[in-house]
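F.,

This is the one I mentioned.
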């Protein structure tokens, strides 16, 4: 049903033999100077590669890697992660659970009272609980939830370690999709034939040469390209610099369609098209209406490359469904853009070569499938799909998409699955009538409503009765919506295990907590530049694992040892033997096109550079011959109307894109009378989600009175007697939090932002408890996008706020557990 980032990279691996670019391009990064050589070590991160100076057993200094010409200042937060006061030092068990196990008082989960245990005791307890699930219940009772941003490093990718060890013990509930693009990756295969969100986009040099207009639709490139799925190179910033230059020379027009003035808009000094939040579909529909009425759309392109326009047009004209004609006047009242401006915008789109780039946040809202589908329909009507500098992309803000791929293979990872499918201790695959796989964001529903049947992407899912959860490499008490609803669910869980290096709220709400080490306390290697496949980077261990922490490899090898499978789990190999093997396999896969030195040379130098790839135009092959190069849709053509989706008979995702009112919306929409402010929880400028929030000094560069900032419109704030620097209580019927006011001219009235990933810090474990730091998911709602994707709708969220005048509570997030002696 979905393509994970992992399988994208597998694809890269598979395609490498066929798509080699140019001759072997081996370059080794400038070797460190003789003086540095003994002291500086190369390593990597989602924020980029770097060299670290290590002495006296401590990381003293970090400087960007020489290939990275645009390093992010997040590198300054790395030391603070390693030496954070939030580090998990020892295996810990929730005190009440320690005493009473599965009969524990689960309403006390989250009271943060823990007792220290030995590694052996902790692993025994973990193993005993896995055993109990398999023998007392069955595979349906266990969900090992790893969906998230494990640190970089292919060998230590922690989700793989957890998945392999747990699978060697028995079966468990699985998941599909992810929180980033759940709606997008589900709808787009029906429309354009691939997820689009994880697809390589047209190369920047082509766009810079050919595009006359670029539309950034909810797309904050400058903020979001700081981070990459693999070790990031930041090469896209070179092109953004050139784009800025072309805007200044009036060679390219760039328009950002966003309620907020983004970092990208500020940087590029480009144009802004304000839009009311969550109303992109009416704007798009009205532009389609204009193109249709003024006969500006590309009929020939539609005839040749698309299906279903005839079914869509009657909806546009108000002849079917809601019987409302989608005129600019109709849209204007919803989206807040003047009707004439909508018409002008539509004409601009077809006047010259236009590249649309869509970000992901507009599909993390209720009915998030619709803006994605409708944007594709608009691009189809424009007729520029497959042309250099034209068409539509859903990924240019992500992991250096648009930097040409070298076509080289990246290193593979530690295997997720048992080597022999039947060497599980427990072979029971009977899910007791429950589904074995669920849409990723519906796990809380499983706990709260086991047995409930839901629709998902054409299938009926029966939610399993999950009793035990294991989390590694993800932080659900950051990434999931509606904390107080989660508390109710956690009251029903018997056992929760977390493996992390830092004491997140997920650890606080767990029963068994195991200390992993950070990526800088282990040896590894990673692809340098995710989509560009620029090279392979060595990740040298900088310091030994702190306190009693261990690598995930060691932790799950210990677990496998408890059921006699350690040798099979490790294949009898050490960390360094694995790293060397992954490197050698990568060298073999690249043999025909890329020369790679032997492992020892690579490890010493720290980097193999594959150079640069060739420019490329997305969907050009389809445009050239739509039959030979058919899309992956059921018909092979662009599907404006999907028979398959139509046949599912869903209410909130029908046969063609449509406008659906949201359950909550600002600017006069539902719920805005009592909670008038739309809370957007965009991705952080100075963090990767919740990662780095524990980096104390770095965090203090942006916090307000020790709290997460809330960005506010001046008029809204003034109306409530609030000024920058004040503490603010933000609330709705779901929860309440404290945050620090930052008034910014970039925010329009009715809009506020708290960046996702702020650590949840409740005063206590009770439902409704005030969050003292400012996690926006204290306020968001946990509803699916629709019956199609069942994805997160985090950005459909209305709140109110007021100046906080009570006794100011301390922030409870960052000091780890309260240890019971
Ligand atoms: P991270 O903060 O990256 O968030 O959610 P995700 O859970 O991925 O959490 C990763 C956790 O894994 C951290 O606690 C980290 O310490 C731990 N970890 C990292 N590496 C390792 C390792 O090697 N070993 C072990 N054992 N642990 C490790 C991200 C998710 O949040 C995403 S991708 C999106 S797009 C969503 N975005 C939003 C949003 O826009 N708005 C809201 N309100 N909510 C969101 N949630 C989603
Ligand atoms: P956001 O920052 O949430 O980014 O990428 P995504 O594109 O989802 O939102 C982008 C823009 O959408 C914002 O400017 C916001 O105002 C706008 N927007 C929100 N709602 C609407 C709307 O209704 N209409 C319109 N027109 N605009 C709207 C997220 C991607 O970033 C993901 S999923 C991950 S996992 C990575 N995470 C990070 C990260 O945590 N930190 C950084 N620095 N970079 C990242 N890159 C990746
Ligand atoms: Mo994401």
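My design for it:
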């Amino acid at each position: 049903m979905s393509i994970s980032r992992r399988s994208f990279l597998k694809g890269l691996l598979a395609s490498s033999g066929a798509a080699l670019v140019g001759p072997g391009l081996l370059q080794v990064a400038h070797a460190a100077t003789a003086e540095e050589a003994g002291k500086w070590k190369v390593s990597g991160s989602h924020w980029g590669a770097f060299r670290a100076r290590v002495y006296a057993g401590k990381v003293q200094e970090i400087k960007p890697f020489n290939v990275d010409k645009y390093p992010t200042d997040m590198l300054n937060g790395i030391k603070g992660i390693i030496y954070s006061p939030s580090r998990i030092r020892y295996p810990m068990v929730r005190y009440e659970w320690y005493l009473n196990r599965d009969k524990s008082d689960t309403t006390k989960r989250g009271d943060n009272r823990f007792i220290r245990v030995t590694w052996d005791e902790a692993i025994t307890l973990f193993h005993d609980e896995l055993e109990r699930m398999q023998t007392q219940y069955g595979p349906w009772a266990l969900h090992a939830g790893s969906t998230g941003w494990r640190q970089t490093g292919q060998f230590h990718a922690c989700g793989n370690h957890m998945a392999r060890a747990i699978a060697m013990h028995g079966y468990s509930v699985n998941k599909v999709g992810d929180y980033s693009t759940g709606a997008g990756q589900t709808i787009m295969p029906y429309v354009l034939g691939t997820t689009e969100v994880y697809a390589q986009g047209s190369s920047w040099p082509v766009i810079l040469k050919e595009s006359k207009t670029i539309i950034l639709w909810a797309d904050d490139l400058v903020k979001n390209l700081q981070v990459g799925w693999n070790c990031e190179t930041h090469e896209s910033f070179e092109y953004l610099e050139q784009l800025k230059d072309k805007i200044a020379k009036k060679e390219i027009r760039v328009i950002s369609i966003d309620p907020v003035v983004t970092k990208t808009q500020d940087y590029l000094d480009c144009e802004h098209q304000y839009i009311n939040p969550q109303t992109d579909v009416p704007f798009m529909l009205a532009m389609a209406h204009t193109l249709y009425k003024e006969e500006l759309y590309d009929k020939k392109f539609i005839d040749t490359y698309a299906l279903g326009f005839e079914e869509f047009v009657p909806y546009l004209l108000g002849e079917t469904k809601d019987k409302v004609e989608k005129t600019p006047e109709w849209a204007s009242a919803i989206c807040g853009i003047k009707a004439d401006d909508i018409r002008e915008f539509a004409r601009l789109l077809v006047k010259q070569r236009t590249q649309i780039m869509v970000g992901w946040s507009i599909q993390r809202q209720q009915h998030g499938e619709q803006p994605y589908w409708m944007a594709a329909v608009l691009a189809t009507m424009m007729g520029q799909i497959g042309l250099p500098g034209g068409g539509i992309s859903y990924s240019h803000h992500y992991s250096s998409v648009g930097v040409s791929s070298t076509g080289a293979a990246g290193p593979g990872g530690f295997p997720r699955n048992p080597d022999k499918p039947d060497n599980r201790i427990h072979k029971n695959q009977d899910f007791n009538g429950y589904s074995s796989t669920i849409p990723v964001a519906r796990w809380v529903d499983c706990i709260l409503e086991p047995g409930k049947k839901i629709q998902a992407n054409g299938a009926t899912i029966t939610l399993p009765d999950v009793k035990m959860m294991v989390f590694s490499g993800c932080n659900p008490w950051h990434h999931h919506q509606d904390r107080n609803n989660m508390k109710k669910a956690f009251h029903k869980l018997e056992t929760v295990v977390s493996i992390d290096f830092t004491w997140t709220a997920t650890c606080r709400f767990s029963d068994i907590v195991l200390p992993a080490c950070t990526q800088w306390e282990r040896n590894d290697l990673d692809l340098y530049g995710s989509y560009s496949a620029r090279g392979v980077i060595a990740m040298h261990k900088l310091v030994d694992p702190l306190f009693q922490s261990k690598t995930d490899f060691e932790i799950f090898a210990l677990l496998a040892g408890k059921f006699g499978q350690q040798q099979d789990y490790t294949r009898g190999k050490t960390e360094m033997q694995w790293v060397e093997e992954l490197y050698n396999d990568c060298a073999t896969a690249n043999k025909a096109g890329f020369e790679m030195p032997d492992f020892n040379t690579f490890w010493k130098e720290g980097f193999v550079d594959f150079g640069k790839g060739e420019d490329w135009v997305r969907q050009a092959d389809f445009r050239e011959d739509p039959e030979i190069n058919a899309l992956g849709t059921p018909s092979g053509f662009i599907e404006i109307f999907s028979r398959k989706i139509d046949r599912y008979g869903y209410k909130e995702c029908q046969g063609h894109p449509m406008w659906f009112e949201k359950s909550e919306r600002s600017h006069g929409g539902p719920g805005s009378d009592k909670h008038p402010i739309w809370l957007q929880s965009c991705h952080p400028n100075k963090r990767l989600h919740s990662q780095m929030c524990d980096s104390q000094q770095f965090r203090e560069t942006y916090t307000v009175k020790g709290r997460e900032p809330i960005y506010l419109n001046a008029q809204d704030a003034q109306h409530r007697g609030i000024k920058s620097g004040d503490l603010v209580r933000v609330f709705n019927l779901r929860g309440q939090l404290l945050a620090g006011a930052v008034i910014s001219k970039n925010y329009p009235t009715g809009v506020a932002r708290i960046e996702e990933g702020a650590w949840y810090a409740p005063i206590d474990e009770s439902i409704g408890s005030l969050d003292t730091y400012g996690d926006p998911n204290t306020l968001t709602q946990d509803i699916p996008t629709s019956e199609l994707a069942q994805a997160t709708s985090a950005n459909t969220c209305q709140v109110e706020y007021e100046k906080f005048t009570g006794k100011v509570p301390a922030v409870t997030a960052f000091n780890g557990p309260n240890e019971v002696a």
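The mean pLDDT is 95.

Talk soon.
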